[in-house]
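WARN  no MSA supplied for this record, continuing single-sequence
INFO  ligand: nicotinamide-adenine-dinucleotide
INFO  echoing inputs
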Amino acid sequence: MTLNGKLAVVTGASSGIGKAVAERLRDEGMRVIGVDINAQQLSAITGIEHLVVDLAHDEGRAEVVKAGRGAHALINGAALIRLKKIREFTTQDIRDIYAVNVEAPWYLMSHLSEVMSDGGSIVNLSSVSARLTVTPETAVYASSKTALLAMTRSWAHVLAPRDINVNAILPGITDTPMQELVLHRLSELREIPYSELESTRLDSIPMKRAAQPAEIAALVRFLITDEAKYITGQALSQDGGSVMF
Ligand SMILES: NC(=O)c1ccc[n+]([C@@H]2O[C@H](COP(=O)([O-])OP(=O)(O)OC[C@H]3O[C@@H](n4cnc5c(N)ncnc54)[C@H](O)[C@@H]3O)[C@@H](O)[C@H]2O)c1
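INFO  complex generated
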């Protein structure tokens, strides 16, 4: 079975990994609905449909479900990160981050799965930070990414009878705008020059390099093919060996 002509819904499609996924699946011949809050960046991606919504609220999430009827694949890539000294996180910070990183994928797994095709696939973008803490300044984001792993397992159970596999990818440091933001905020919070952080950030990675978004997109593509159908409920690290099982 080929991906050609099938529908994929990709959230966070205007930037970084989500953008690379949308472009890769488009290049495979899929019909892609790219979902993002950033209208300007999203509109710059050619050959896909653009759905501008705020995934922090049910109204926006419901629009995605409506547009995604019959989808073969759902890729939950949108995420919000905020860095602070750990005691400075407020309840509102937690709600804002969880609205995008936890509630939205939950809503879409619950409601979009009802209208997607049997035999389809769901891929959730978690993070190495779900399992490894090197920056307590991202503690709330990291906890949301751990929550996403538990959700992945539950939905994998529930959707298995319909032959829908549900997996999570845990990217390590990947060169995207989010990574830039992390370095800038860490530099401010720790009062360490940006250049110093940038030159040491890869030291603990056995492969001594960051991932490129296209590498993550290639794993997403594999996970939504028939070849990967017997893989479900898994958390697949793609991090240059940062976390070995
Ligand atoms: N870059 C990394 O090093 C890295 C590492 C591990 C995991 N990840 C995960 O990979 C995924 C993609 O990350 P990225 O680095 O490409 O990030 P990014 O910041 O470049 O892209 C995230 C996208 O999500 C969108 N988004 C945020 N809030 C939204 C909302 N309320 N409604 C709709 N869209 C919204 C943004 O507009 C943006 O386009 C995320 O889930 C992230 O947690 C990234």
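The chain has a mean pLDDT of 97.
INFO  checksum written, moving to next record
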